[in-house]
Amino acid sequence: MNFDVDSIRNDFPILKQTTKSGKPLVYFDNAATAQKPQCVIDAIVKFYSEDNANIHRGVYELSDRTTTAYENARQVLKNFVKASDEYEAVFTSGATEALNIVAQCWGADNLKAGDEILLSEMEHHANIVPWQFIAKQTGAVVRAIKITPSGELDIDDFSTKLSEKTKIVSVAHASNVLGTINDIESIAKQAKSVGAKVSIDAAQSSPHMLEDLSSELYDFVSLSSHKCFAPTGSGVLYAKREILNSMRPWKFGGDMIENVAWAGTSFRSAPERFEAGTPNIESNIVFAQACKYLMSLDIEAVEKHEQELLALLSSQLSEIEGLRIFGTSKNKVSVVSFAVDGVHPNDISVMLNNYGIATRTGHHCAEPLMNTLGVSGTCRASLAFYNTIEEVEFFVKSLKRILNILR
Known about the structure:
By secondary structure, the chain is α/β, with parallel strands linked by helices. It has 13 helices and 15 strands. It has a seven-stranded mixed β-sheet with strand order 2-8-7-6-5-3-4, with helices on both faces. The chain has a four-stranded antiparallel β-sheet with strand order 11-12-15-14. β9 (about 255-260) and β10 form a beta hairpin. The radius of gyration is 22 Å and the shape is globular.
């Protein structure tokens, strides 16, 4: 199981650049957005050079060709998560919109006063705020599952809070801050035991190709294109067709209607009922190209490489005095968030940039989690399979130099 990272890096032209600092780019902000392989860039150019047309409406060759590519992309994306035929793939603008559809179109009509929505303390704002809004609207209650000191979901607390009142459990497959991989299959089984629906935020897990999104235990699964080495502005909501067809639309316009008359309007079945107007055609088609690229890789070798990077980075950072890593679960994606006593995380990232190193600081759209951790923000290094051992070593070496200046 050999992993040729140099060959992989050749697929990503952006990684070859030298920054203004005169240093090679070290891109450690993959949890925010991943870089794009040449095949994805070529697919974008091809679309606008050869195939650009609106879909579903035209009877001419260009439109027909683009429509075919668009619907084929939907099938590729279903294959990416190994979704069964009972699932439908709804194109969205990203995981945020996908999660909002679940809350707005399922939650608003299926929740009532006294019902409970179970989230976890490690959730992204996109999986908190929509449910808070729906809870206020319906009288339902949002409850947060606690996390352990190592940054794992507290299963005892989950079991205690799960009850007949629980109507939906909505959790991240992997935390964008802690890196923790949640045991979503076990969570879903428990949720189903009380009749609750299950929604999975797979924005952070899907780029690492964790292979357990196909379970029929999950009613909704949300993905984002730009995390998966594809363009921004696209995403997918996978959901059981029967549930989707019972949900009301949330946007209205062309392509999602069956018939329109002054007396009233009827809507198409899923997925079209949630895809009003002209969609992000190029991004959705190219999202499929990125998934094909990912599926062409040796997934076991990719995972092994990323875990080696994670282990090295975690080990070397843990040796730095006054540095605290948040999220020490044994089951993590390659994300390391940390803070250093007496040093503002933003100062660290600004100075790392002088070494050509791209990292992220702040609350990472997980402010409630920051409150749980007792910090205002962290510095986050998030790695992908195109990162190298040498980059990790350079990162740690540069960080030590910076801390010698700042402390």
